[in-house]
Design a protein that fits this description.
It contains three helices and eight strands; from the N terminus they run βαβαβββαβββ. It is globular and about 50 Å long. It has one domain: 3-Layer(aba) Sandwich (Rossmann fold), CATH 3.40.50.2020. The longest helix has 19 residues. The chain has about 180 residues and is of the alpha/beta class. It starts with a strand and ends in a 5-residue tail after the last strand. Bound molecules: inosinic acid and magnesium ion (MG).
Length: about 180
C-alpha cells in the first residue's frame, strides 16, 4: 500500500469483479448500435481502460478534459471545458464515463453540452457515486459503487494531481493533506 494511504476502501480485486458486471450490463443495453464513449480526463483513465476492454461492442472512444475541483478537496461548482474542440456526436448515441459522481455538476454539464451538440442519447457511467443528497441532478445511469461522503483517491482519482495510478480506492492519511 502507498505510504500516504490511511485505508483501502475498495480493493483492486473488488473493483475488477464489479467491472465484469458493469461490462455485461453495457453489452446488453448497447448491443447492435454503434456508440461514442466520451471519457472525462483525467479521472476516468483507469476506469476507461479496464472497463472498455471488457466490452467488445463497436465503439469510438473520445476523451474530453474538464475540471471542477482545481486540485483541492471540494467541488468548485463551476465546470470548465479545457479543450478547444469537442467530439463530433451529432446524431450519435453517447456514453459518458467519469470516475465519480459527487455534486453531479460535471456529468450534468457534459450531458447538456453533448446534447446541445446533437447527440441522440446521452447515458452516464461512473465508478463511484457519493451517497449525498443531490437536488434536481440526475444519478448516473450506471455506477460501480456507492461510497460515503468522504474524499477518496486512487483508481483515477487524485489529490493535487497525485495518486491516480493506485489500483484501489482509498482514504488519505491526514499527514498527506
Ligand atoms: P461533481 O461535479 O461534483 O459531481 O464532481 C465530479 C468531479 O470531482 C469528479 O470528476 C472528480 O474529478 C472530482 N471529485 C469528486 N469527489 C472526489 C473525491 O472524493 N476525490 C477526488 N476527486 C473527486
Ligand atoms: Mg474528474
Amino acid at each position: 500500500m502507498h505510504q500516504d494511504i490511511e485505508k483501502v476502501l475498495i480493493d483492486e480485486e473488488v473493483i475488477q469483479k464489479r467491472l465484469d458486471i458493469l461490462a455485461e450490463k453495457l453489452m446488453n443495453d448497447f448491443e447492435g448500435e454503434p456508440i461514442v464513449v466520451v471519457a472525462l480526463l483525467k479521472g476516468a483513465i483507469l476506469f476507461m481502460a479496464d472497463l472498455l476492454r471488457r466490452v467488445p461492442l463497436t465503439m469510438e472512444i473520445e476523451c474530453i478534459n474538464v475540471s471542477s475541483y482545481h486540485g483541492g478537496m471540494e467541488s468548485s461548482g463551476k465546470v470548465q471545458f479545457l479543450d478547444n474542440t469537442l467530439p463530433d456526436v451529432l446524431g450519435r448515441k453517447v456514453l459518458i464515463l467519469d470516475d465519480i459522481l459527487d455534486t453531479g455538476g460535471t456529468l450534468h454539464a457534459v450531458t447538456e453540452k453533448l446534447t446541445g451538440l446533437g447527440a441522440t442519447e446521452v447515458k452516464t457511467c461512473v465508478l463511484l457515486t457519493k451517497d449525498i443528497p443531490r437536488e434536481s441532478v440526475k444519478e448516473a445511469d450506471y455506477s460501480g459503487f456507492v461510497i460515503g461522503n468522504e474524499f477518496v483517491v486512487g483508481y483515477g482519482l487524485d489529490y493535487q494531481g497525485k495518486y491516480r495510478n493506485l489500483p484501489y480506492v482509498g482514504i488519505l492519511k491526514t499527514s498527506a493533506i
